[in-house]
Design a protein that fits this description.
This protein has 528 residues and is mainly beta. It is 3% helix and 42% strand. Strands 2, 4, 5, 6, 7, 9, 14, 15, 16, 20 and 21 form an eleven-stranded mixed beta sheet that branches. An eight-stranded mixed beta sheet has the order 1-13-12-11-10-19-8-3. Strands 22, 24, 25, 27, 30 and 32 form a six-stranded antiparallel beta sheet that branches. The radius of gyration is 23 Å and the shape is globular.
Length: 528
Amino acid sequence: MLNKTLISQLVFSSLSGGMLVGCASTADTTDASFITGKKPVELQQTPITPSDKWKLSWQDDFEGDRINPRYWSFEQNCWGGGNNEQQCYTDSDKNAFVKDGLLHIVARKESFTGPDNPEGVEGGASKTLPYTSARLRTKGKRDQKYGRFEVRAKLPSGQGTWPAIWMLPTDSKYGTWAASGEIDILEAVNLKTQSDAPGAKPGEEENRIHATLHYGKAWPDNASSGLGVTLPNGINPADDFHTYAIEWEEGEIRWYVDNIHYATQTHEGWYSQFEQEGQLVNADSLAPFNEKFHLLLNVAVGGSWAANANEKGVNADIFPQTMLVDYVKAYRCSVDRWKGKGCSAKSEDATLVKGNQPPAILVQDDSYADGPELNVFMDSLNESLAYGSYDPTDIVEYQEVEEPGRGKVLSISKQNGGGNIYFRSPTTDISHWLDSGQLSFDIKVDQIAEDVELVIKMDSGWPATSDMTVPLNNTSEWQTVSLSVADIIVGGNRYVSGSADPSNINNLLVFEPTGAMEFSLDNIRMSK
């Protein structure tokens, strides 16, 4: 689950997170295969038997009549998780209780007022939200580095539900989210609503589960990688209990559902960059997943992901909704407790998620933007900038290619879903470009799906982001687009309240199609 205790605010609607909503367009259409993009992976593998070398570290079978305080504490706030979620987390026994050997986490439709900060500190700003729920965590009670973590649960369903079984670092050694990491064992949104998976037919129910890592630098320059899958034979995880697990060892994390090993990520596809003595540095290649983490269980309502997917919004008529948890078990590897190695059980059919490579560390000098000319891409990328891409479902591709008569151009392909390409920059003051500055670029649109727009953004960190729709001709020929820098900035954020701060731009430009699109860019420049 996207960071719910630090300063995430971006998951699906920022520079680095682009779930796109409410966009109209006059774009033309293309073939259906291009529009639908990649379909979710349907699991067909045979379950494997976990190693008998795992040694039980602790477990909670939720017997008795109360939640065990030796294992769990409650988060209490109305902060909205940094994702504009619509629930307050409480310690009320209406929102979390033990009954019949099961933990019940219940999201309810009821107004509640509480602290508007992740720590739940009283006395400051407060917020009133229309739902209540619970979030339990083992922080400071059952922290652990490496091992097998297993949760058997039945998930809630309906538009606006967002259950999660996940882990956060206990000490945040590498800094604030997501530089110190996040492990999502299981997330799902809007189960049993109309699926919006690529190629889904009318009446086809949402049944995907998601496994994700978050890492990189402190927000808003974080990165993520993961995989969405469906259970065998169209099984919906809201209909019955299933066992969700990870095996985590030094340099590798593996995901399982009902002992089907379906995804693996390794340290070759994650990274951490953090400040040390005022300079951004690369952490060890094992970081950030080489420190103690703790477990979290919660049900969120709405928010940047759930409310912008499937049937959109929150269906108030479905509540209360409950996540039932049968047990939680944590193991250590008896072969090598310190590295967690020697206890793995793997399938050759599991997907190796490619992850991301650490981006070049940019020198914090904005003199490149002094003007009166700023070349962003002219046959090559400005040496003060670096490419970046928000691509949580592996649907964005870009590369520099040779174009006859033009030299190198930037070729970009995005399938249907959230994603973009952006130009990372040192923290830059572009205030002097507001008087008469023009952003210009050449663009050739090869394919664009129906009702898709191309949005361009300037970003100071979500929600301080401004965007503007790029006017495009219905042609596949090269065309030149010119936009006023001031017009982009004053346009503000179309998704939430916010606007880029021209004195504090940290991602100079973002190109974000609202759906499937293939296009090329050249001669990207700013001038006065």
